[in-house]
Amino acid sequence: MHAISALQSLAEVFLRRREQLAATVGLSDSQWAVLEEISTEHFMPSLFARRRESSAAGVSRTIRQLTDKGLVSVSVSQEDARQRDYSLTEAGQLLMARLRAHREHAIAEVWTTFGTDELQRFNAFSQELITRLEAYSLTAEPTSLATEHEGESNHG
Known about the structure:
Number of helices: 7
Strand order of the largest sheet: 1-2
Helix content: over 70%
Structural class: mainly alpha
Order of helices and strands: HHHHEEHHH
Number of strands: 2
């Protein structure tokens, strides 16, 4: 189906563009994602890893890289010594500001060329597609091609 192929291409282009934006400030996409999350001031590595379907070790490695670059500081929580508090350093805040400026420029260059009606139709379609895909993913039973083929060979 052409629509699915177009959606896959769009997702790939978005990811590639995000990687390019991160590279403009010397980051990987995963480092940018962690920095963004830390900037919300409610960063919990284990929850972040679960949400991103990543390993806790991978997130820890990324935090270490960001700390080594002087972009993130880690301290023992004042409220619970078993917890760590993560925050952007001044250099991290400046880098995020540069990154956001690059992203805003890209948005202005690409998205503002579309008319309001086009954007509203795209948004409505996207929201409906998201709703349908999420609903389907909750009700669909995962099947394996191997299981399906085994059933065919047993009956044939």
